[in-house]
Design brief:
Blueprint (H helix, E strand, L loop, with lengths): L6 H14 L1 H4 L32 H7 L10 E3 L5 E3 L3 E3 L9 E3 L4 E2 L19 H13 L1 E2 L2 E2 L2 H14 L4 H27 L17 H4 L9
């Protein structure tokens, strides 16, 4: 059976993605509220549900190999469905190494925080997960190589990275439409949090799979200065 939706399903998905995207672009888990009651997203490897280290799947390694993307995501997971990078993740436009975007080791991300209603067709850890990490970093930092970044430039980078990852065009359209309508709210919220002193890059990583982001983020000396 094909996982590609019918035309009617596609239209409904695009409309629904926009309607529910406020839950996506300002994710509850990254705000530090508990997500203990949330169900697990489908498709996660078994390691992600119990061990602190998550090995990349073979399909993802093959997908990324040979493209202008960094190594497959090396991520570990907090108990409350939030991840951190164990290594840098990067993307660059083809043939333009000077324009490389790098999400640093220790960056905390929720991958693609899509509302649960759409997990059957837009899972948080789908093909676009790598692009979503890069996009999360650009939205959080608000800059690239020390220069201020426009929000729509960050969105354009995500779209380009998704196309390199061969994400289905209907998924790209749904995500881009949602960002067009609701991305500014997340961009502004991140700017406010940065100005309030919030940090999102770890220097000390949890050693237990039972640690929640909502608790770890309150530790005094676990973040990069």
């Amino acid at each position: 059976m094909s996982d590609k939706p019918t035309n009617g399903d596609r239209r409904s998905l695009v409309i629904g993605s926009v309607a529910f995207c406020s839950a996506w672009v300002v994710p509850t888990a990254l705000r530090g509220q508990s997500a203990a009651a949330s169900a697990e997203p489908p498709g996660l490897p078994a390691q992600a549900r119990g061990l602190p280290e998550v090995s990349p799947d073979a399909w993802y390694s093959q997908l990324v190999a040979g493209r202008d993307l960094g190594r497959p995501l090396a991520i570990s997971r907090f108990l409350d469905r939030v991840w951190w990078l164990n290594d840098d993740a990067w993307w660059e436009p083809a043939g333009q190494p000077a324009a490389r975007v790098t999400a640093p080791r220790g960056f905390v991300t929720d991958l693609a925080s899509i509302p649960r209603l759409f997990w059957s067709v837009l899972a948080p850890d789908d093909q676009y997960a790598y692009a979503a990490v890069i996009h999360d970093w650009l939205y959080w930092s608000g800059q690239h190589r020390g220069q201020a970044l426009l929000r729509r430039d960050a969105d354009a980078i995500m779209v380009a990275a998704m196309r390199e990852l061969q994400v289905s065009e209907w998924k790209i359209e749904a995500i881009d439409l949602a960002l067009n309508h609701f991305g500014q709210a997340a961009w502004d919220d991140n700017a406010r949090r940065r100005s309030d002193g919030e940090k999102r890059v770890l220097r000390v990583f949890p050693q237990s799979p039972q640690v929640r982001w909502s608790d770890w983020r309150l530790q005094p000396d676990v973040f990069v200065d």
